[in-house]
Design goal:
This protein is an alpha/beta fold. The protein is built from eight helices and ten strands.
Length: 258
Protein backbone atom coordinates (compact mmCIF):
# COMPACT_ATOMS: atom_id res chain seq x y z
CA UNK A 1 0.00 0.00 0.00
CA UNK A 2 2.89 2.39 0.74
CA UNK A 3 5.18 1.07 -2.00
CA UNK A 4 7.60 -0.64 0.39
CA UNK A 5 9.34 -3.85 -0.57
CA UNK A 6 7.58 -6.82 1.01
CA UNK A 7 7.49 -9.55 -1.64
CA UNK A 8 9.36 -12.65 -2.59
CA UNK A 9 12.51 -10.92 -3.80
CA UNK A 10 12.87 -9.07 -0.51
CA UNK A 11 13.64 -12.47 1.03
CA UNK A 12 16.22 -12.99 -1.72
CA UNK A 13 17.79 -9.61 -0.99
CA UNK A 14 18.20 -10.48 2.67
CA UNK A 15 19.89 -13.76 1.82
CA UNK A 16 22.15 -12.22 -0.81
CA UNK A 17 23.25 -9.50 1.60
CA UNK A 18 24.98 -12.32 3.46
CA UNK A 19 26.12 -14.13 0.32
CA UNK A 20 23.64 -16.97 0.84
CA UNK A 21 21.06 -18.86 -1.17
CA UNK A 22 17.81 -20.38 0.08
CA UNK A 23 15.48 -23.03 -1.25
CA UNK A 24 12.19 -21.68 -2.58
CA UNK A 25 9.46 -24.33 -2.84
CA UNK A 26 7.38 -23.05 -5.75
CA UNK A 27 3.71 -23.96 -6.07
CA UNK A 28 3.83 -24.46 -9.83
CA UNK A 29 0.17 -25.54 -9.96
CA UNK A 30 -0.96 -21.93 -9.59
CA UNK A 31 0.01 -21.74 -13.25
CA UNK A 32 -3.58 -22.85 -13.88
CA UNK A 33 -4.83 -19.54 -12.40
CA UNK A 34 -2.08 -16.99 -13.11
CA UNK A 35 -0.68 -18.39 -16.37
CA UNK A 36 2.58 -19.92 -17.52
CA UNK A 37 4.34 -16.58 -17.98
CA UNK A 38 3.82 -15.46 -14.37
CA UNK A 39 4.95 -18.70 -12.73
CA UNK A 40 7.82 -19.23 -15.15
CA UNK A 41 8.94 -15.68 -14.40
CA UNK A 42 9.09 -16.42 -10.68
CA UNK A 43 11.13 -19.57 -11.25
CA UNK A 44 13.55 -17.86 -13.63
CA UNK A 45 13.98 -14.79 -11.40
CA UNK A 46 14.83 -17.00 -8.44
CA UNK A 47 17.23 -19.15 -10.46
CA UNK A 48 18.96 -16.12 -11.95
CA UNK A 49 19.32 -14.65 -8.45
CA UNK A 50 21.33 -17.75 -7.47
CA UNK A 51 18.53 -19.30 -5.45
CA UNK A 52 17.42 -22.94 -5.36
CA UNK A 53 13.93 -23.69 -6.72
CA UNK A 54 12.14 -26.84 -5.53
CA UNK A 55 8.64 -28.28 -5.84
CA UNK A 56 5.68 -27.27 -3.65
CA UNK A 57 2.42 -29.18 -4.09
CA UNK A 58 -0.91 -27.42 -3.54
CA UNK A 59 -2.93 -29.66 -5.88
CA UNK A 60 -6.28 -27.86 -5.58
CA UNK A 61 -5.14 -25.21 -8.09
CA UNK A 62 -4.92 -27.63 -11.01
CA UNK A 63 -6.79 -30.81 -10.08
CA UNK A 64 -9.71 -30.99 -7.64
CA UNK A 65 -10.66 -27.67 -5.95
CA UNK A 66 -12.37 -29.64 -3.19
CA UNK A 67 -9.17 -31.53 -2.26
CA UNK A 68 -6.29 -29.31 -1.16
CA UNK A 69 -4.36 -31.97 0.81
CA UNK A 70 -1.95 -34.32 -0.90
CA UNK A 71 -3.07 -37.18 1.34
CA UNK A 72 -6.59 -36.98 -0.15
CA UNK A 73 -5.24 -38.16 -3.51
CA UNK A 74 -4.37 -41.77 -4.37
CA UNK A 75 -0.83 -42.95 -5.06
CA UNK A 76 -1.37 -42.86 -8.80
CA UNK A 77 -2.94 -39.40 -8.59
CA UNK A 78 -0.05 -38.08 -6.49
CA UNK A 79 2.42 -39.64 -8.90
CA UNK A 80 0.80 -37.68 -11.72
CA UNK A 81 0.68 -34.47 -9.67
CA UNK A 82 4.38 -34.69 -8.85
CA UNK A 83 5.26 -35.65 -12.43
CA UNK A 84 3.38 -32.64 -13.79
CA UNK A 85 5.14 -30.36 -11.29
CA UNK A 86 8.57 -31.76 -12.12
CA UNK A 87 7.91 -31.35 -15.82
CA UNK A 88 6.92 -27.68 -15.47
CA UNK A 89 9.67 -26.75 -13.04
CA UNK A 90 12.42 -28.42 -15.03
CA UNK A 91 11.22 -26.76 -18.23
CA UNK A 92 11.27 -23.36 -16.54
CA UNK A 93 14.60 -23.59 -14.70
CA UNK A 94 16.55 -26.08 -16.81
CA UNK A 95 17.53 -27.85 -13.58
CA UNK A 96 16.55 -31.23 -12.14
CA UNK A 97 14.00 -31.14 -9.30
CA UNK A 98 15.55 -32.71 -6.21
CA UNK A 99 13.38 -31.54 -3.29
CA UNK A 100 9.71 -31.22 -2.35
CA UNK A 101 7.48 -29.82 0.37
CA UNK A 102 3.78 -30.65 0.47
CA UNK A 103 1.44 -27.70 0.79
CA UNK A 104 0.19 -27.34 4.38
CA UNK A 105 2.53 -30.26 5.25
CA UNK A 106 -0.10 -32.71 3.92
CA UNK A 107 2.25 -35.46 2.74
CA UNK A 108 1.60 -39.12 3.49
CA UNK A 109 3.30 -42.40 2.61
CA UNK A 110 1.88 -42.24 -0.92
CA UNK A 111 3.47 -38.81 -1.36
CA UNK A 112 6.87 -40.25 -0.50
CA UNK A 113 6.37 -43.08 -2.98
CA UNK A 114 5.23 -40.58 -5.64
CA UNK A 115 8.42 -38.59 -5.09
CA UNK A 116 10.54 -41.73 -5.46
CA UNK A 117 8.74 -42.62 -8.68
CA UNK A 118 9.64 -39.20 -10.05
CA UNK A 119 13.30 -39.16 -9.00
CA UNK A 120 13.00 -36.60 -6.18
CA UNK A 121 15.41 -37.49 -3.39
CA UNK A 122 14.59 -35.01 -0.58
CA UNK A 123 11.34 -34.14 1.18
CA UNK A 124 10.72 -31.47 3.82
CA UNK A 125 7.05 -31.96 4.70
CA UNK A 126 7.31 -33.46 8.19
CA UNK A 127 6.09 -30.98 10.81
CA UNK A 128 6.16 -32.54 14.26
CA UNK A 129 2.74 -32.61 15.97
CA UNK A 130 1.08 -30.80 13.04
CA UNK A 131 -2.17 -32.72 12.48
CA UNK A 132 -2.16 -32.21 8.69
CA UNK A 133 1.29 -33.80 8.40
CA UNK A 134 0.41 -37.47 7.94
CA UNK A 135 4.10 -38.35 8.02
CA UNK A 136 3.95 -38.08 11.80
CA UNK A 137 2.64 -41.65 11.97
CA UNK A 138 5.75 -43.13 10.35
CA UNK A 139 7.93 -42.86 13.46
CA UNK A 140 10.48 -40.48 11.98
CA UNK A 141 12.45 -38.50 14.59
CA UNK A 142 11.77 -34.92 15.56
CA UNK A 143 14.23 -32.42 14.06
CA UNK A 144 16.56 -35.09 12.69
CA UNK A 145 17.00 -36.11 9.05
CA UNK A 146 15.92 -39.67 8.34
CA UNK A 147 15.22 -41.95 5.40
CA UNK A 148 11.90 -43.55 4.51
CA UNK A 149 11.08 -45.46 1.33
CA UNK A 150 14.41 -44.31 -0.09
CA UNK A 151 13.64 -40.59 0.38
CA UNK A 152 15.62 -38.41 2.78
CA UNK A 153 13.31 -36.42 5.05
CA UNK A 154 14.54 -33.01 6.25
CA UNK A 155 11.89 -32.09 8.84
CA UNK A 156 10.71 -28.60 9.64
CA UNK A 157 12.73 -27.55 12.70
CA UNK A 158 10.46 -27.13 15.73
CA UNK A 159 10.72 -26.13 19.39
CA UNK A 160 8.35 -26.03 22.35
CA UNK A 161 7.12 -22.79 23.84
CA UNK A 162 4.97 -22.16 26.89
CA UNK A 163 2.01 -19.93 26.04
CA UNK A 164 1.15 -18.13 29.26
CA UNK A 165 -1.68 -15.63 29.54
CA UNK A 166 -0.51 -12.17 30.64
CA UNK A 167 -3.23 -11.93 33.32
CA UNK A 168 -3.34 -14.31 36.34
CA UNK A 169 -0.66 -16.41 34.69
CA UNK A 170 0.41 -17.97 38.00
CA UNK A 171 -2.99 -19.62 38.57
CA UNK A 172 -2.60 -22.39 35.97
CA UNK A 173 0.06 -24.27 34.11
CA UNK A 174 0.96 -22.77 30.75
CA UNK A 175 0.22 -25.01 27.76
CA UNK A 176 3.18 -26.10 25.66
CA UNK A 177 2.86 -25.49 21.94
CA UNK A 178 5.03 -26.62 19.05
CA UNK A 179 6.52 -23.77 17.05
CA UNK A 180 8.72 -23.52 13.94
CA UNK A 181 11.59 -21.15 13.16
CA UNK A 182 9.48 -18.62 11.28
CA UNK A 183 9.69 -14.80 11.41
CA UNK A 184 5.89 -14.66 11.50
CA UNK A 185 5.74 -16.90 14.56
CA UNK A 186 8.31 -15.23 16.82
CA UNK A 187 6.85 -12.80 19.34
CA UNK A 188 10.20 -11.30 20.35
CA UNK A 189 13.78 -11.31 19.16
CA UNK A 190 14.75 -13.00 22.42
CA UNK A 191 12.46 -15.93 21.56
CA UNK A 192 14.11 -16.22 18.15
CA UNK A 193 17.63 -16.25 19.62
CA UNK A 194 16.60 -18.83 22.23
CA UNK A 195 15.03 -21.09 19.62
CA UNK A 196 18.15 -21.09 17.45
CA UNK A 197 20.37 -21.57 20.50
CA UNK A 198 18.29 -24.58 21.54
CA UNK A 199 18.62 -26.18 18.10
CA UNK A 200 22.39 -25.56 18.00
CA UNK A 201 22.93 -26.83 21.55
CA UNK A 202 20.91 -29.95 20.73
CA UNK A 203 23.27 -30.59 17.79
CA UNK A 204 20.43 -30.57 15.26
CA UNK A 205 22.34 -31.32 12.02
CA UNK A 206 20.03 -29.35 9.69
CA UNK A 207 18.13 -26.34 11.04
CA UNK A 208 15.28 -25.29 8.76
CA UNK A 209 14.37 -21.59 8.76
CA UNK A 210 10.88 -21.19 7.36
CA UNK A 211 9.17 -18.37 5.43
CA UNK A 212 6.39 -17.83 2.91
CA UNK A 213 6.42 -15.52 -0.09
CA UNK A 214 3.94 -13.34 1.82
CA UNK A 215 5.85 -13.38 5.12
CA UNK A 216 6.56 -9.65 4.97
CA UNK A 217 2.96 -8.68 4.20
CA UNK A 218 0.06 -7.94 6.51
CA UNK A 219 -3.43 -6.55 6.04
CA UNK A 220 -3.76 -3.00 4.73
CA UNK A 221 -6.88 -1.10 3.78
CA UNK A 222 -8.10 -4.17 1.83
CA UNK A 223 -6.88 -7.71 1.09
CA UNK A 224 -5.60 -6.56 -2.30
CA UNK A 225 -3.57 -3.72 -0.72
CA UNK A 226 -1.29 -5.24 1.94
CA UNK A 227 1.31 -3.28 3.89
CA UNK A 228 4.77 -4.28 4.96
CA UNK A 229 4.91 -6.43 8.10
CA UNK A 230 7.75 -4.57 9.76
CA UNK A 231 7.95 -6.99 12.69
CA UNK A 232 8.35 -10.08 10.48
CA UNK A 233 10.90 -8.34 8.26
CA UNK A 234 12.91 -7.29 11.32
CA UNK A 235 12.75 -10.84 12.73
CA UNK A 236 14.09 -12.22 9.46
CA UNK A 237 16.98 -9.78 9.34
CA UNK A 238 17.76 -10.57 12.99
CA UNK A 239 17.71 -14.28 12.20
CA UNK A 240 20.15 -13.81 9.34
CA UNK A 241 22.47 -11.80 11.59
CA UNK A 242 22.22 -14.46 14.31
CA UNK A 243 23.10 -17.26 11.87
CA UNK A 244 26.03 -15.22 10.55
CA UNK A 245 27.30 -14.40 14.06
CA UNK A 246 27.31 -18.09 14.97
CA UNK A 247 29.23 -18.97 11.82
CA UNK A 248 26.66 -21.58 10.76
CA UNK A 249 26.90 -23.00 7.26
CA UNK A 250 23.92 -22.10 5.08
CA UNK A 251 22.97 -24.72 2.49
CA UNK A 252 20.11 -25.25 0.10
CA UNK A 253 18.18 -28.48 -0.35
CA UNK A 254 19.97 -28.91 -3.68
CA UNK A 255 23.40 -28.82 -2.02
CA UNK A 256 22.19 -31.22 0.68
CA UNK A 257 21.11 -33.61 -2.08
CA UNK A 258 24.64 -33.70 -3.46
Amino acid sequence: EDGSRCGLMEIVRGLRDHGWAGTFFLDVYEQAKWGDTALRGLAVNLRDAGQDVALHTHPQWAYDPARNAMYTYSLDEQTRIVADGVRMLQAWTGQPVVAHRAGAYTANTDTIEALARNGIVLDSSLFWNQPESHLNGLGMPRNLPSTTHGITEIPVTVYDREDRAPVLASLWRAPRVTRKLDPNWFVTEAEMHAAITGAVDAHVPVIVVFLHSFSFMTAGSSPSHPVRDAHAAAMFRAMLDDVAARGLTVRTMRTLAT
